[in-house]
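Rather than argue in generalities, we reproduce a single protein record, letters for residues, whole numbers for local backbone shapes, just as it appears below:
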Amino acid sequence: MIHKGGRSCRRLSRSGSIRWLTGECVAIADRLAKNVFQLHGADGTGHAVLRKRLRRAQVLEFFSQLPSCVVAMEACGGAHFWGREIGKLGHEVRLIPPAYVKPFVKRQKNDAADAEAICEAALRPTMRFVPVMSEKTQGAAMVFRVRELLIRQRTQAINALRGHLSEFGQVVPQGAANASKLIAIVEDPTSGLPADAIPTLKTLIAALAHLEAEIKELDAEIARRAKENDLARRLMTVPGIGPLIATAIATLAPPPETFRKARDFAAWLGLTPRQHSTGGKQRLGATTKMSERSLRRLLIIGANSVIIKRHTHAAAQPGTWLGGMLSRKPPMLVRVALANKMARIVWALMARGGVYQSPAVAA
């Protein structure tokens, strides 16, 4: 943590008593874990002045005895909770992405080395930090995480049902759209399935029906939130963005002022090419796939819906940018390129307000 005042920093010794250190404490980093927390502090010259391991119950007590500081932590599971709790004690919390901490780890892998690396990374003037999420934002984001989990479980149930039926010569094409065919085979008394297998297969069908009902309830909740959120309603004017994508962006995306321009927002989503350039030669590879995976996947799905229905979208007609891309580029490349463009439009709507207007209408 970075000491903002001119007072000396206090340290807890091994015996637990408090003693004052000579000089100003510049930084103390907190390496989070489930039960053990590693602290590392450095003075203005970069020398270590504190190496302390705390149990979970001792963390808040330790920080409550310190003057107002900037606390640096690695963004991980539970980091937002500790950021809020430590922030309530008067400290300013900064969360650092783990990828930005890794280059500062000198050798070996242990909690002390990680805490020292976090401390050094926090002192860099160009370091980027993750904003601490509020409880309300985390609670709103949970619906998307749970929905993704249920969809994965539904896919597992469908694949299991399809695999078991294939053992008895019943082959059905892949995809959730063909789940009804699988169910019809199990319920058909003339399908030739063994009598001992039918009760077990019906268990999978019951689990699949339960998952379908739960997913529909979450979709209805997301649609309700989209109607109540002004930003989500404006984002839904963009082709390919529906209630699910709009609500996810409004909930999971950082404030637009976090990024200088629209391309930075697309890069944060991992929709820009990975660079490996040197010697003045530009070498661009596949997309970086960094940061928020859910938003990137949803935008690509939304772009795919525009391409599938390109005959009904004016922006995909021959002579347009998208129409030209579809005529000369691979389909998947076009989907990612369109998702990149949609991300830039989203940032513009978030930063400047208004609704989307197609180029033909805007002209």
